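Dear U.,

For the methods section draft, I wanted the exact inputs and outputs in one place so we can describe them consistently. I've listed the two proteins in the order they'll appear in the manuscript figures. Please don't edit the token lines directly; just add comments below if something needs changing.

First protein:
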Amino acid sequence: MATRATSPHLARLRSSAATPVVGTVTRGTTNPNRLRRMDRWIAATHGAELRRSPDPVAVDLGYGAAPWTAVELLTRLRTAAPRTRVFGVEIEPARVAAALPYEREGLTFLHGGFEVPVPGRLSLIRAANVLRQYDEEQVAEVWRRLCARLAPAAEGSRGGLLVEGTCDEIGRRHVWVALGPEGPRTVTFATRLGSLDRPSDLAERLPKALIHRNVPGEPVHAFLRDFDRAWAAAAPYASYGARQRWIRAVRDLSADWPLADGIARRRQGEVTVRWEALAPRF
């Protein structure tokens, strides 16, 4: 029985060997539900694009030592777009072998890296906690490579989506960049509000493109400074709960920063900012 189960997997590994694998092995740290905030945001904001696609294909790139995040991504995306297929792609062959028993209809695991060994243009690539170990100078090239794999924009469609970012080990704090075929669009800060002392606590989860830019003179530093001030000014709303305080702080923040979300997402402990407002200064 074990031999029959592993043979197709080994064949996939052999067939992919001719294609150079791009990237390096990550630590592989993962936990169930670690990416739930990111997944729910994707389903809510990108679900319509997935439903419009004749063949919605999503990739969980660098899912880690265990396949939980890919399994959960399939479940969550199918609540928004039932025809979605998910490919878990990992650069470490042993991790792919370990994931094989979790394959099911709509979920496949492959050996690969930033070359993304999935045919065709993709509706979604999620790369969470992957670029953390890379140098900042490498990020732009990885983004360019991955964006080139996205489905192009067309009439009535913005095309595929790349979501790249970082979160803590149990998924309470996230920051991610959303990119389309044309490049970066937005940055989203998401948190379990009950765990937050102040918004700038999220700075430690900034993605690689921004984490070294949280210094005076850079836009992301100014944004977090202003967010902390708005959070402090909204302190009277804390008596109604952390959610009401967050909503009030974000409302005040919107007077000076181009936010790209609405009240429904803010109630989830999120705020999304236009990329151009936070883009590093070179």
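Second protein (the one for the lower panel):
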Amino acid sequence: MDGRNVLSRSSRHRKKRTLGKMFMLLIMLVIIGVGAFAGVKMLLNGDSLASASSVREDFVVTEVAAMGSAAKDKAAPTLYNGMKRKVVYLTFDDGPNVHTPQLLDILKSNDIKGTFFMLGENAKENPEIVKRMYDEGHYPGLHSMTHDYAKLYKSGGSKNFIDEFKEAQGIVNDIIGYKPTLIRAPYGSAPQIGEEFRGDIANAGFKMWDWTIDSYDWKYPGNPGAILSQVQSQLTEDTEVVLMHDREQTTQILQQVIDYIRSEGYEFEVYNPDQHFVCNFRHDERL
């Protein structure tokens, strides 16, 4: 065989391979470009991973964070008792427990009243803490009995949810002689609570708060500074409802959170049923 023909064919083969590699590289660049464009679009639309709320190990991934941001649009009036003020409501979930007295101590030393969304079982086990909370002017909100996602939301209706809140309401009433009507849905009210479900809650005599700032304090054991950073990055509106929990790391950073919020010109208030305002992710006026 002619050596020149062999070399010619070898050369043509190398060229084909080179063109093939260039074609594959071009395809990869197009794919990367599309992905980058989609990523930028997600960020611009607020659809980043941070927009989802992956709220603790046993939490489900929901649209809560994005909805919490949107809730700022209608969360509360800028007028309070006829005056324009910057107001923060500190709220605490899942107690009372061993950390609640320390939270109460910090709030008392700062002359601040908070709103505590209590689990019925925890209230039953810690009646003295519930009494102290109420006697010191904090609002004793409700947070269900079990905090069980499947039981509360997967039964096909609202009965389990409402029964748990009525049971928790009865426990608190037995302890302090007061029937709280403000509730907070475990895992937030959206997306798991639909329009009919919300109507059932309203018909049962409850009001429901979500939040406008998620401190993610449950997420940072051993790193309380990250909790402060979360609050700092989200504190923007004239009225904010801050979600926190009865946790050790929360007791470690609460004073600094208070100091920062005050340095930004805010005052603190406790929930008052006579001055209720809508703060749920769907802006449902019934709640």
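Candidate sentences for the figure legend, describing the second protein: Residues 106 and 228 are 16 Å apart (CA to CA). The radius of gyration is 26 Å.

Thanks,
Y.
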